[in-house]
Amino acid sequence: MDPEPRRDDEGGDPACWARLVCPECGRLTEDPAARRCPVCGAELPTD
Ligand SMILES: [Zn+2]
């Protein structure tokens, strides 16, 4: 049913990727280890 099982952004736990949403531009960073937004360079929340 899901053609891209790795992009489980609807059925997964929102908390695990919510911190990866850039507070500046709103883009979802795909790298869970990222500390900064790859688009605008803003620091991502790390708590
Ligand atoms: Zn950004």
How would you describe what is shown here?
The longest helix has 4 residues, at 15-18. The chain has 47 residues and is mostly loops. 9% of the residues lie in helices and 0% in strands. It is built from 1 helix and no strands. The relative contact order is 0.21. It has one domain (12-47). It binds zinc ion. Zinc ion binds at residues 22, 24-25, 27, 37, 39-40, 42.
Set out the fold topology.
Elements: H1 15-18
Zinc ion binds next to loops.
Which labels suit this protein?
about 45 residues, binds zinc ion, about 10% helix, single chain, little secondary structure
Question: What ligands are attached or bound here?
Answer: zinc ion
Share in helix:
under 10%
Q: In whole angstroms, how far apart are the ends?
A: 34 Å
Describe the global form. Answer: elongated
| Spans where pLDDT lies below 50 across 5 or more residues | none
State the assembly state of the protein chains: single chain
- Please tell me how large the radius of gyration is: 11 Å
Number of helices: 1
Q: What's the number of extended β-strand segments?
A: 0
Sheet/helix structural class: little secondary structure
Short description:
With 47 residues, this protein is largely without helices or strands. The protein is built from one helix and no strands.
